[in-house]
């Protein structure tokens, strides 16, 4: 009995430490942004110019574009393209990455291809996709995904090489079904690698989506920025860009971080 | 080639490994097992005792179906496909699943909804069902591994030194727990160990293995029921074992 209570003591201690470092305090974030805005405002007032509108003017442009419905529409189109190419890149990249990580021969054979694709500039892929497949949505989303897939492959291949074979053996002895193996053996072990690939993926993909839109689409944030560039409307360019950055920030804070926290709750928290 | 046969219900475990060798990195081969033959009866608890590095774990991997590169045959008890409860040297619980999820995941479909209350209670895990393995001590994690192996109602229980790296009192407590739950639902069991006292305490039969290439040196049957075994009896058994297998290196 004494042993059992000592063990439960040890476990209580293991559970206790709170994760303070995980969250930056909201006050600090607000303060930090306020200082940035103040500096911007100060610069715009000190050097008045058409090419540097102040935060107030940008905000007014943002409100006007939102009220007209233009900004939400183009933002929505861009978000849709980001989401579609993200899912495409993650799924295809993960499957190929796990395959190459599992079979050394295949990896040796395809590695030069991978290096080639890693080093093709995004712009070349986009231009070629538009030439070969036409100025359409499939070419646009495909081009973005192709830019991201090699990165996902490299990360997931590394993750697959780090898999612990003993868990697979345990699953074989206890006759886990294929779905159970995927859900309970493979994906949890790959989770840190999936998280890393997603993080860098979203940041990369939305920037490439803007280029794709600029070059060959008639809607989306990238198309609008090109339009306002020709009109030399810097306030509108900033309004669109910042609105999209804000959306991506919210996705990170409200979707990615809570998801990551819940999927890593089994890890022993550092004190 | 090898064969993993399965005979009719309630068959015995029959091990007939003619040869098993490994290729070394310099291109040579190293013979681990040679003519390793023994049987374990239905609901019998057998211990395989042998010096470190003699290939006990290799033999167990062959029985578990994890290594099929051998010559010979293995016949497991059970109807169609033997359900094997395995306790590995490491507990091998999935760190991202709770204790209860770890046990339930191993259950065959028709047992998925079965109640595990009694099993958890008898292993002293009742309060730890919702814990993650990283929150358990090694002793508790081993108990959870034993729970997983027994929960599936196995045709055969295979244990690979499940009590190593535990302090003496925890190991002894765990041996009693194992005997308790195994007696409640007896099944054919084979435990690999290099600890002679442990073997004498737990088993009906001790299979003594040689050094590499490993074969069976002899068996030591203990027909005395476990509830009649006490320290005095175990000491006598130990002496008898040492007389029969003089010159065998075993741990005290």
What can you see in these coordinates?
The complex is a heterodimer of chains A (271) and B (252). Chain A is an all-alpha fold and 271 residues long. Chain A has a single domain, classed as MetI-like fold (Orthogonal Bundle), CATH 1.10.3720.10. Chain A contains eleven helices and no strands. Chain A has helices at 2-15, 26-46, 55-68, 70-102, 104-119, 122-133, 137-161, 165-173, 178-216, 221-231, 234-263. The longest helix of chain A has 39 residues, at 178-216. Chain B has a domain at 11-83 and 154-244: P-loop containing nucleotide triphosphate hydrolases (Rossmann fold, 3-Layer(aba) Sandwich). Helix content of chain B is 29%, strand content 26%. The longest helix of chain B is centred in the C-terminal third of the chain and has 17 residues, at 168-184. The model of chain B has no long low-confidence stretch (mean pLDDT 82). The interface between A and B is medium-sized, with 25 and 33 residues.
Structural class, from secondary structure content of chain A? mainly alpha
- Beta-strand proportion of chain B: 25-35%
Count of beta strands of chain B: 10
Work out the strand percent of chain A. Answer: under 5%
Q: Catalogue the unreliable spans of chain A.
A: 1-19
Strand order of the largest sheet of chain B: 6-7-8-4-9-10
CATH superfamily label of chain A: MetI-like
- Output the number of helix runs of chain B: 7
Q: What gyration radius of chain A follows from the Cα positions, in whole Å?
A: 24 Å
List the secondary-structure elements of chain B in sequence, H or E. EEEEHEEHHHEHEHEEH
Shape of chain A: globular
**Which fold does the CATH topology of one domain in chain B refer to?**
Rossmann fold
Based on the coordinates given, report the CATH architecture of chain A.
Orthogonal Bundle
Give the full name of the CATH homologous superfamily of one domain in chain B: P-loop containing nucleotide triphosphate hydrolases
Order of helical and strand elements of chain A: HHHHHHHHHHH
Spatial gap, N to C terminus of chain B = 39 Å
Distance between the termini of chain A: 28 Å
- Poorly predicted runs of chain B: none
